[in-house]
Design a protein that fits this description.
With 552 residues, the protein is of the alpha/beta class. It contains seven helices and 38 strands.
């Protein structure tokens, strides 16, 4: 550009533009100067657009008016990188903002750390993050901004409250963890000794609360944790606090211990070598332990757990706790009608080593050691056939109603026949609850709207002093009505979340083989296997059943 000279001043910091209008071949523009600067040593220097516009306009005016006066203006300067910090309001994190220099100097790690300290950023500083940011800064264009969190405080970790630890295992837990022999082999038939405790035996211990862990902010302000609290021990039937140790629970009488919902109970236990016509039916307020078989047409009813160390054939067993059958349970072939000759009903879970022709009803999980066939199951939990860590048992010819998942090695059979798994009952119960509460919400909304208008009318009028007490009572009732409405609306939202959670957790998994004739159902949505599959995972998503092969 003739007539235009751009250079640094003596300090080499400021960029000076000198224009001789009489030597200019043509008018100059901001765009033209910028384009020229890009190919010079000044390409990274900060240039003020307003100053450049001013000098270009003045030079062009001078040329038009034949004014030969020289123009000298500072249009830019070198700018060092800018370093800024921001500390969050809670002082638990600090952000570093770096602005790339315009031909100036880059900060060093030491300089950034020094500035951080001056800004009261003392604890939790990550030098690695600062180094990474400085590397990125050197690759950035002038004026680019790089921002990242470079310091984090440590939140205080509150102490845990006291908690209880059972000192004896539940019967069902013992069944699910067969004993390991000296040679390291697992024997599913060896379940160890049956746990029945005598009187004054420790069954539960309360472990002390913890102090927690102190924390700090990035400004090194200490954060003190809340200490855990001593939680009272909830005593179950048949237990008491030890006279020698207030944190120890002991049994009052001999019986079978059970730990459930953080409460240890010791059920008075009836022990029988078997159940047949010689013993008669058993109806017992407590736990029942059968060290033998349960014969055909016999009944066992207990308020606690029922444990059978043997075989059950066409019998009726009802328990207020869990039902554990260490061998098998079989009912007679009743294909001519829908009745089952072997019925197991439990308010807890049910475990059987293998079963056929069973009618199982329980509120919790059903676990089967090896195989379950031609049975009807209705449970409030999951159905697992095989080892719990890797279900590999067989499940076929069954009608299942469940609320969670069904896991097995093989689902269905090569000979055909159907296996129907229905997840609808729990889902429909949630929908019914949502509908009923929504109807109640609408009714209360109508009432509150009507009552609100009436309250506005009353408030706009002069109320006699003798009626002010009644008015206060009416307002209190109206506020209670509003509170009830808000609670019900919150309950509807919670149930909708629970409904979404329900559909996300239901699934069917075949770890080895899935044969044709396996049908899954949720309300009016069905999926049926029409052919044989290898390892498979069937789950519910976006209102549809989805089949997915298991490849790992």
């Amino acid at each position: 550009m003739n007539g235009v000279t751009i250079k640094f001043d003596e300090s080499l910091q400021h960029l000076i533009m000198t224009v001789s209008p009489s030597e200019m071949d043509e008018e100059i523009s901001v765009e033209l100067v910028y384009a020229w600067l890009k190919n010079t040593e000044f390409n990274e220097v900060y240039v003020s657009e307003s100053a450049l516009k001013q000098v270009c306009g003045q030079a062009n005016d001078f040329k038009k008016s034949n004014n030969s006066s020289s123009i000298e203006v500072e249009i830019g300067e070198r700018k060092n990188a800018q370093v800024a910090f921001h500390i969050d309001d809670d002082e638990m994190s600090a952000t570093l903002t770096l602005t790339a220099p315009y031909g100036g100097h880059y900060p060093s790690k030491k300089a950034v750390l020094t500035l951080a300290k001056k800004n009261n950023i003392i604890r939790g500083v990550s030098q690695k993050r600062i180094v990474r940011m400085l590397k990125r800064l050197k690759q950035a264009a002038p004026g680019d901004i790089i921002e990242d969190c470079i310091a984090k405080g440590l939140p205080a970790k509150n102490g845990h409250s006291s908690h209880v630890k059972p000192l004896v295992p539940n019967a069902l837990e013992r069944v699910l963890k067969p004993q390991v022999s000296e040679d390291g082999k697992t024997d599913p038939r060896n379940l160890g000794d049956i746990v029945c405790v005598k009187a004054d035996v420790p069954v539960l211990r309360r472990l002390p609360p913890t102090d927690g862990r102190a924390g700090y902010t990035v400004k090194n302000t200490p954060l003190e944790p809340l200490q855990g609290q001593w939680i009272p021990i909830n005593l179950g039937e048949g237990t008491k606090i030890s006279s020698e140790d207030k944190n120890l629970v002991v049994s009052i009488t001999s019986g079978m211990p059970k730990f459930f919902n953080l409460v240890m109970t010791v059920d008075d236990t009836f022990i029988s070598k078997g159940v047949d016509v010689s013993t008669g039916h058993i109806k017992y307020d407590g736990a029942v332990l059968v060290k033998g078989d349960v014969a055909e047409n016999m009944k066992i009813e207990a308020s606690g757990d029922v444990t059978v160390i043997g075989f059950v054939e066409s019998a009726y067993i009802e328990a207020g706790g869990d039902i554990i059958i260490t061998e098998g349970a079989v009912g007679k072939d009743t294909q001519e009608n829908e009745d089952f000759s072997c019925i197991l009903k439990s308010s807890g879970g049910i475990h059987v080593q293998h079963g056929q022709g069973l009618h199982i009803t329980c509120l919790e999980d059903v676990s089967v050691g090896k195989q379950l066939a031609h049975s009807k199951i209705s449970c409030g939990g999951s159905v697992v056939v095989g080892k719990h860590d890797n279900p590999n048992g067989s499940l076929f010819g069954c009608e299942i109603e469940t609320t969670r998942h069904v896991l097995a090695g093989t689902l269905g059979a090569v000979s055909g026949g159907s296996l129907n798994i229905d997840f609808s009952q729990g889902f429909n119960q949630l929908l019914s609850r949502i509908d009923s509460i929504n109807a109640l919400v609408q009714q209360i909304k109508q009432n509150t709207d009507r009552h609100k208008k009436q309250m506005q009318i009353i408030s706009s009028k002069s109320v006699p002093s003798e009626l002010l007490g009644k008015l206060d009572e009416t307002r209190a009732k109206f506020n209670d009505e509003i509170g009830l409405l808000k609670w019900l609306e919150k309950k509807v939202d919670e149930l909708k979340i629970e409904k979404d959670s329900y559909t996300s957790q239901i699934k069917v998994v075949a770890n080895e083989k899935l044969y044709s004739g396996v049908n899954t159902q949720l309300d009016n949505r069905n999926w049926r296997s029409e052919r044989e599959y290898d390892r498979a995972h069937i789950f519910y998503k976006d209102h549809n059943w989805i089949y997915e092969p298991i490849t790992r």
